[in-house]
Amino acid sequence: MKIAVDAMGGDHAPKEIVLGVMKAIAQYKDIEILLFGDEIKINEYLTDKTRIKIIHTDEKIESDDEPVRAVKRKKKASMVLAAQAVKDGEADACISAGNTGALMSTGLFVIGRIKGIDRPALAPTLPTVTGKGFVMLDLGANAEAKPEHLLQFGLMGSVYAEKVRKIDRPRVALLNIGTEETKGNDLTKKSFELMKNQQAYEFIGNIEARDLLMDVADVVVTDGFTGNMVLKSIEGTGAAFLSMLKMSLLNGFKNKVAASFLKKDLMELKAKMDYSEYGGACLFGVQAPVVKAHGSSNANGIFTTIRQVREMVEKQVVETIKAEVDKGNLGGQEAND
């Protein structure tokens, strides 16, 4: 199995990317990594080249680059070359911690969309109180969506949850302002009807935002505009809560003593709320696994993302999605027009 990795994308590239790659190579003997980036900078941190191949390029897509323009103009950028390797059959999947919009554009323009899937979807796994987590999509690939798109998002999320997260018959829910079937706007009402009448996955109905982290669903579907705001709200709330808790525990001698006893538990809580522990955000709907690692990923974050991609390739997630779409129970005409 060959995995293409953009070594120059992310806040801590290439150091943390390279360290994460070496950790993955040591753990998994059945993978080979193609590292795309500046060979001199990569070699500063690469102490073990076992099953690692460097493809040199000194061009990269910056975090503030306009995504579509950057992908079209920077043909030799590390991210683009990694995706091209997948397109050419030289790699089975690609990973980048770089510009999210550029990676989505690269997945669509270079690797290509699955026939029958109208829109791609960005899907991370978010934490729950049980530590189990849930897949949520779309979290930003499309600002607007149609009911047919949300129907297909449910399928793609369900396949991933079953194959990679090893959940038998995943529970798929639709994010809405109420649990009743009649609640919501035109998009959610029509999406509910489509999802209720399909046979490809187990639809359990509407879910409210306040219940997202309570482990009531394995896959949650929404449009990209709503999903991205929910993601940012969860991130901000989690960070604010931990900050307030820290200030409270460090305020006064007694609290500091209590904090010393609770340190291990608090670290476990922080890890449970860190969704990067689940891997990166998958770009579903393209012809091969494409995963966006968190921009601030350290070596362990890159390692977990490689582990995630390895599972996606091994369990044939993309092939399963294609097979389910070919059965014809989900509709969607835009990809065929």
Question: How does the SSE layout of this entry go?
Answer:
Blueprint: E1 2-6, H1 15-27, E2 32-37, H2 39-43, E3 52-56, H3 67-73, H4 78-87, E4 93-96, H5 100-111, E5 121-123, E6 125-126, E7 134-137, H6 147-163, E8 171-175, H7 186-197, E9 202-207, E10 219-221, H8 224-249, H9 253-273, E11 281-284, E12 290-292, H10 299-314, H11 317-326
Parallel strand pairs: 1-2, 1-4, 2-3, 4-12, 7-10, 8-9, 8-10
Antiparallel strand pairs: 5-11, 6-7, 11-12
Helix pairs in contact: 1-10, 3-5, 4-5, 6-7, 6-11, 8-9
Explain what the structure shows.
Homodimer. Probably interacts with PlsY. It holds the Pfam family FA_synthesis. The chain has 337 residues and is an alpha/beta fold. 44% of the residues lie in helices and 15% in strands. The protein contains eleven helices and twelve strands. The chain has helices at 15-27, 39-43, 67-73, 78-87, 100-111, 147-163, 186-197, 224-249, 253-273, 299-314, 317-326; strands at residues 2-6, 32-37, 52-56, 93-96, 121-123, 125-126, 134-137, 171-175, 202-207, 219-221, 281-284, 290-292. The protein has a seven-stranded mixed sheet with strand order 3-2-1-4-12-11-5, sandwiched between helices. Strands 6-7-10-8-9 form a five-stranded mixed sheet, covered by helices on one side. Helix 6 crosses helix 7. The longest helix is centred in the last third of the chain and has 26 residues, at 224-249. It is globular. It starts with a strand and ends in an 11-residue tail after the last helix. Mean pLDDT is 89; it is low at 332-337.
